[in-house]
Design brief:
single chain; alpha+beta; 11-stranded antiparallel sheet; 8-stranded antiparallel β-barrel; about 40% strand
């Protein structure tokens, strides 16, 4: 019985195979195979990119990254001084306990103390170097108020927004390592390096009194900034050798109160206000002598916080010559970094960092990109990062940018009736792009993919050199074309 069943199975397989052979024809049109005239062919060509330095000493400074301190730039031997201003955020509908439940001291004060903490993300320079800062209250007057719509830059004089009458509200001599805190506390996983600044208790008293006079002033950050506390200006006024990169700033107001839930206890509260992305933070940098670093025949530079970018001239005309009807599948190039010969000689604390992220953006869009808070769209702007293994920055494919610029040029020539020569004379930088060191923030979207949510100028202390693209030895761009054989 088993032999007969096996025979039937094999017979069915053989017959099915025979029907397949009978059904075959030489006509492949129904099988999804392209006719010969629709076959796709590809080709590859290499073109040269020219590069040069671009001084970019004034950049937008509205950022969550704040810097404070003064150091000597090892490349220019000039001082770089950082001053920053920060507003403080309040949660919507913030409330204090009822006034009658506040425990006052013997002099009738509501506030026990108030302080500011500047939490340090990283330090450039000597952590043990004494520095001095001043704290100035920002003005709530409409003519001096920092508005949400303002574009603040690294050369903006932030002192113009401060209340100058009466001088600074506090001063502080500090080191990046706080030796008032015990070594055991500093070694704790819950401790973060910070600068603690004690404000006059009267300032905290005034904040609480404003709440009890009008709780609506604490309704949101907009009301809080205009009616209670406009923020503070932090100025470096003494010491050289330390630059702090601040992660967050907080204002902590302490008071005591009674609660119906604990009628026999006196509770201590910390009312915390933080400088967050919801409010303005801006750093002002003072530096000079950058012009002496540009123009080298062998390299271009990338220098931050506000300094030098690299400009590229893309050979778009050459790329499309003879390929007007072809598709550009890929256009890639690599920027090779030149190692600093003095890197090994520099103390690690004073070695300028290598910019981690790089934005490629059309030169004509450089200012609007940052002022409009854009992110890389992979058409007129692209981003990449530093490949430490290969010591380079790699742009894998900017083909959409090349096509966009070429089509834009052709369309405008046709609309204006201008010849190619006249159009290019009127738009000399149509094919120029700029490489800008940036800080990129990402977040997961609904598909779990990381997408860019913000791209801002890198305001940290960094510098690197890139091999210059010259006519004799340009930066190589590889372009891959495709076309239908019928074309």
């Amino acid at each position: 019985m088993k032999i007969k069943e096996t025979y039937k199975i094999w017979a069915a397989v053989i017959m099915a195979f025979a029907f397949m052979l009978i059904g075959c024809t030489e006509d492949t049109g129904q099988l999804g195979v392209y006719p010969q005239q629709d076959a796709i062919s590809t080709s590859t060509e290499t073109f040269g990119i020219l590069s040069s330095d671009l001084l970019n000493t004034v950049v937008p400074a509205n950022s969550t990254a704040c810097f404070l301190g003064k150091v000597i730039d090892p490349e220019t031997d000039e001082a770089i001084t950082a001053t920053f201003a920060a507003q403080f955020h309040t949660f919507e509908g913030y409330t204090f306990p009822a006034r009658e439940n506040i425990i006052k001291d013997e002099d009738g004060h509501l506030c026990d103390s108030i302080e500011i903490r500047l939490f340090i993300k990283s330090t450039f320079g000597d952590k043990n170097n004494p520095m001095k800062l001043e704290v100035w209250p920002l003005s709530r007057n409409e003519d001096k108020l920092i508005e949400e719509s303002m574009n603040l830059y690294t050369n903006t004089d932030l002192q113009q927004f401060a209340e100058t009458e009466g001088g600074p509200i506090a001063t502080k001599v500090f080191t990046a390592t706080d030796y008032i805190v015990s070594e055991g506390q500093r070694a704790s996983s819950t401790y973060s390096d910070n600068v603690r600044i004690v404000l006059p208790r009267e300032y905290g008293e005034d904040i609480m009194e404003k709440y009890y006079a009008d709780p609506n002033s604490f309704r949101d950050s907009y009301q809080f900034i205009r009616n209670v506390c406009a923020g503070f200006l932090f100025r470096t006024v003494g010491g050289t050798g330390t630059m702090l990169n601040l992660e967050v700033s907080t204002m902590n107001l302490f008071f005591r109160f009674k609660s119906e839930a604990y009628p026999d206890s006196i509770l201590t509260a910390n009312c915390r206000f933080s400088a967050t992305p919801e409010v303005i933070q801006s750093t002002q940098f003072e530096s000079s002598n950058l012009a002496g670093l540009v123009g080298n025949e062998d390299f271009t530079m990338l220098k931050t916080p506000a300094g030098i970018c690299t400009e590229l001239v893309l050979p778009i005309n050459e790329i499309f010559a003879g390929h007007e009807n072809d598709s550009i599948n890929r256009a890639s190039f690599t920027l090779t970094r030149i190692n600093n010969q003095d890197e090994d000689a520099l103390d690690d604390d004073y070695a300028l960092g290598i910019p981690k992220n790089l934005l490629l953006v059309r030169k004509q869009n450089l200012e609007s990109f940052f002022e409009n808070h854009q992110v890389a769209d992979n058409q007129q702007s692209f981003s990449t990062f530093f490949y430490s293994t290969y010591n380079c920055y790699d742009f894998d494919n900017i083909s959409r940018l090349l096509s966009y610029c070429y089509k834009e040029k052709k369309a405008d020539m046709e609309a204006s009736g201008m010849s190619e020569e006249a159009w290019e004379a009127a738009h000399p930088e149509w094919n120029h792009v700029v490489l800008v060191p940036v800080t990129v923030s990402t977040a997961a979207n609904s598909f779990g993919e990381n997408v860019q949510v913000s791209v801002t100028h890198d305001l940290s202390l960094g510098s690197t050199k890139l091999v210059r693209g010259t006519k004799a030895k340009p930066i190589k761009m590889q372009v891959i074309y495709s076309r239908f054989a019928g074309n």
